[in-house]
Amino acid sequence: MSLPNLPESFASDIAQERSLVTAIPGPKSDALMKRRTEAVARGVGTTLPVFIERAGGAILVDVDGNQLIDLGSGIAVTSVGNANAEVVKKVQDQVALFTHTCFMVTPYAGYVEVCEALNRLTPGEHHKRSALFNSGAEAVENAVKIARAYTKRQAVVVVEHAYHGRTNLTMAMTAKDMPYKHGFGPFASDIYRVPTSYPLHDGLSGDEAARQAITKIVKEVGADQVAAVVIEPIQGEGGFIVPAAGFLPALSSFCTENGIVFIADEIQTGFARTGAWFACDHEGVIPDVITTAKGIAGGLPLAAVTGRAEIMDAAHVGGLGGTYGGNPVACAAAIGSIQAMESGNLVTRAAAIEQVMRARLEQIQAKVPAIADIRGRGAMIAVEIVKPGTLEPDDALTAAVAKACHGQGVVVLTAGTYSNVLRFLPPLVISEELLNEALDIIDAAFVDLS
Ligand SMILES: *Cc1c(COP(=O)(O)O)cnc(C)c1O
């Protein structure tokens, strides 16, 4: 098992090595954390109270000089590696030329170039158009606006365990109360939640799970009332839930038959992350509209809605946009990032990362009965953690393993409606040595704690 080599241009000037020179967090991070507590609103959480000074590839360097292995990529964002050379160069060139005009006032080529790339790379050969925004939630909001304008219907269907963002409409679309929604209502109306496909827990085939969801839509919402079904092809915050084969195609066909816009939220799964350009590609599903963000621009804030030209053009002139949407510096970063994905063959590399991770995680699972499931695709892999012999979530063990990894300088994230999923989102450029070292630490944490 070995990961394909990367071109020279991917080399980082930060040594790709873990190195701990203080406790985690160290004294400088502790001091900054005190200032943070005083200055920053409490509602903005912290996974790991370590302040970062520099980063490169899959290594984060903190203010105390510790080098941490990044298995989170800032939540699936820095897929091409942190401070990727092609991204840095494009950003530096652009920022020196001009920083902003507002694309709706006086346009620039970078925005068009990103839309052309999106239209080319997203699933399906049909005629597409794109529009750019600042955040994932904003892309989802706009996808819903467009679907409503196109269908002249209002209902929006989402699924159990969904995550679509933190704005008012997207909070309504997100499933989990704490921390995303709690106390923040009232929420937007006309959002309907139906069961998803969750093989570990429902034991259903893709067809059976789709039938269950479709029956609920037909009987409780009315197929001809629905503007859009919005779904993550692999659920991200919900716990990397991969639906049973056939579920997504069946749901997509139902939408086509009923004039419903099928919107794939690929904000976490998109841009090579799952070992395909987009997760829909694994099942040959062609969404009418797709939302993207996270991995698109190497860390700069950018999001997009891409879809069938006739659907995208249903919104009237001036109906879409925003001051910063498709900022020229963010567009330059996206162009650099997409080039890096192509030149580094990162789609293939993501698939190879899955092979390495699965083999190691299966060895850990053989020793640790608390691991009920290993799932995901490409470099989007998670384990679900339960009380052994049951499917009862063990969020305490999950948090303890994550904390132990953090203490050893490995950044891992948790997820899941029951907070019992440990998820891994390494940069697609991570070296095999670093990946294996991180897996050694994860292995030891599980063995020690379970
Ligand atoms: C992160 C995420 C969002 C929200 O994106 P933001 O940029 O945080 O607003 C929406 N959908 C999915 C699937 C996500 O993973």
List keywords for this structure.
Aspartate Aminotransferase, domain 1; binds pyridoxal-5'-phosphate; single chain; four-stranded mixed β-sheet; alpha/beta; 450 residues; globular; 2 domains; Aspartate Aminotransferase, domain 2; 16% strand; seven-stranded mixed β-sheet
Layout of helices and strands, plus pairs?
Elements: H1 27-39, E1 52-56, E2 59-62, E3 67-70, H2 73-76, H3 85-97, H4 109-121, E4 128-133, H5 136-151, E5 155-159, H6 168-173, E6 191-194, H7 199-202, H8 206-221, E7 226-231, H9 247-257, E8 261-265, E9 289-292, E10 303-308, H10 309-312, H11 328-343, H12 346-367, E11 371-377, E12 380-385, H13 395-407, E13 410-411, E14 413-415, E15 421-424, H14 432-449
Parallel strand pairs: 3-13, 5-6, 5-7, 7-8, 8-9
Antiparallel strand pairs: 1-2, 2-3, 4-10, 9-10, 11-12, 12-15, 14-15
Helix pairs in contact: 3-11, 4-11, 8-9, 12-14, 13-14
